[in-house]
Amino acid sequence: MSSPEVTPPAELPPPPSTTVAARAPQPAVPEIKSPWVALLLSVLMPGLGQVYNGHFAKAVTFFVAFSGSIYLIAEGHPLPFGIFLPFVIFWNMVDAFRSAVLINARGVRALEEEEVESPWWGVALAVMGVVLLLNNLGWLRLGALVPYWPLLLIGAGLLLLRRSMQRRPGNGPSV
Fold first, then answer.
1. Is residue 157 in some structural domain?
2. pLDDT of amino acid 40
3. pLDDT of residue 15 exceeding 70
């Protein structure tokens, strides 16, 4: 009988070192945003609080809505745009404050992970630009659209109503 062949033991990894390894560098802590600074900047000029928070598409949208409202009021349409102007200013201030609070609540995040803004801010800005371009080219008269501004309120109200109905629990079909 032959003796069984002895296989060499497998290579084992070396035992872990007992010395303390140097700690990896911690990611940079993002700048804390002061909600009150964002609010005060928004009071100075609509959109500045959003720039402070790093939301540039929102900033441009608020600024265009603010200046567009002033332009349309000066063109002789004070009723709808005189109401819209304080709304833009107030919404701008609330958004800047709220965004700063949300940025701070998120805590530490990697600096290269830039927050993606909603595409609707870009859509809103593009629509405003197209409307103003068409007005400047004479293809659209913004003054002629003034009687139809309540349609925006109706559409916004229907959208809010639809959203609230979709979020309501137990909104399934009744049997």
1. no
2. 95
3. no
In a domain, 19, yes or no: no
Chain centre distance of CA 150:
26
Q: Which residue range forms the structural domain that includes residue 90?
A: 35-110
| Region class of 162: left (phi > 0), else alpha (psi between -120 and 50), else beta | alpha
Give the integer Cα–Cα distance in Å for 52 and 122: 19
**Interval 62-86: pLDDT, tens:** 988 898 888 878 877 777 778 888 9
Task: Record the tokens describing residue 23, joined without a space.
Answer: 């700690």
For residue 104, give both structure tokens. Answer: 């701070």
DSSP-based three-state secondary structure for 65: helix
User: What residue type is assigned to position 76 of the chain?
Assistant: G
The CA-CA-CA angle for residues 84, 130, 143, to 5°, reads 50
How far apart (Å, rounded) are the C-alpha atoms in residues 109 and 28? 8
Query: Which tokens is 2 given?
Result: 């032959």
From CA 142, how far away is CA 73, in angstroms rounded? 12
Q: Assign 3-state DSSP to the chain and report helix, strand, coil percentages, each to 5.
A: 60, 0, 40
Q: How many CB atoms lie within 10 A of CB 6?
A: 6
CA dist 125 and 60 (Å) reads: 8
User: Position 31: which residue type?
Assistant: E
In eight-state DSSP terms, residue 139 is S
